[in-house]
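Usage

Read records sequentially. Each one opens with the input sequence:
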Amino acid sequence: MNAETNHTETPWPAGPVSREALQRLLKDRSVTDIMLAVPDLQGRLLGKTFNAPVFLERMTDGAQMCSYILATDVDMTPLDGFDFTGWEQGFGDFLVTPDLDNVRMLPYRPGTALIFGTPVHDDGTPVEVAPRRLLETQIERLNELGYVVKAGVESEFLLHSDGPSGRTPVWGDNLDYGLQYPPQVSDFLHHLADAMRDAGLVHEAIKTESAAGQTEVTLAYGQALKSCDDYAVFRHLIRDIAGRHSMIPVFMAAPETGVGSGLHLHVSLWTERDEPGFAHHRGEELPPLMLRAVAGLLSALPHLAPLYAPTPNSYKRYQPHSFAPTRYTWGFDHRGCAIRVTGHGNGTHLEVRLAGADANAYLALTAYLSAIAHGLKEKLSPRPACDRDAYHDRSAIPVYADLAEALPHFEHSTIAHSLLGKDTVRHYAHAARAELAWYRTHVTDLEQQRGIR
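and closes with the structure output:
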């Protein structure tokens, strides 16, 4: 696909396709390649691209992949010391079973179908620490309590140009809520929207933000697992679209001093009869279900920070009056709080504003849903809603100053162990320690600027 592609005339199906439709497409060779993908610890899609006839003949029950794809840092460095893989175990394979009911067609790769895969152990049981599996577990937990989870993803990121002079923001002005853009920005946003439609990613809005080069994409609200799958496909897709426009998307929580990019997740609970559990009208008391959900988030999230703030950079976003929270507060339509009650009537829901752009959506939502389930099971009540400047609310628990401070509160927390299991806590604590070790042993440009006189 390029800037001249007419997306309304794609010769292959757009978006998700059924198992039966995939079989037909494979048979008539409309699909020639199968991309089997697993979300890694950072939320990226990793895997293999298979010759479709070979996949159909030999691998519909699964394909082998190196287990290190769930044990790496952002640079794909094999990390030692995990329970199920490492140098002691020789970084062996696990089987990845394809979810043939979750197939996507990719607009930038005609003839290629993307299939989400589930890593399983030799005995056929899922690898429970895999990000997608962790989220499934929490969704199932709330299902057992009688609720269906719906979620929406609101993603902020920067767009940098990749030119001879290096990487710089594509635009320098404050374009927050702007409706007129420089031509190159207008072209990119147009092609991004077309590509998302062709990939079956329903989005609510695309807007430019206040920081130089900052953009926000809001994906459609829906079933929680599908929303995170859509976001993973979006992250995969946008790198290709941006690259074709000589741009680079930057998903950092604090990409520059004084700039923050969030990953705001919107969450609500519904009954099995599709009745809204958070329905609320202004002037009324919040429903008890919502109050318990808020209380669970306030109680448990301080114990789960490495799941939604996984890097040292994550914590540099938490600055006063930055629209990122600095304390575990909640309020009505209050963007200074960690948890914002927003929406109207049946659409009332919670917006959790703690995760930054560097977060893995599967893991962040895992943390949020486990905390909500905690609030429901324990029948917790929240502290009063914040009705003033949330950044001056000294009575609320502050977010951690850095990952080093957050890690022991996660690793040694009885709440974290209870909600996630000791194996999951150990796995992600180990990943956090590896992240800290990298930062502690590398000299940054800023250190050189301050130290070389």
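Summary fields computed downstream for this record:
- The first strand starts at residue 15 and ends at 17.
- Residues 14-120 form a domain with the Ubiquitin-like (UB roll) fold (CATH 3.10.20.70).
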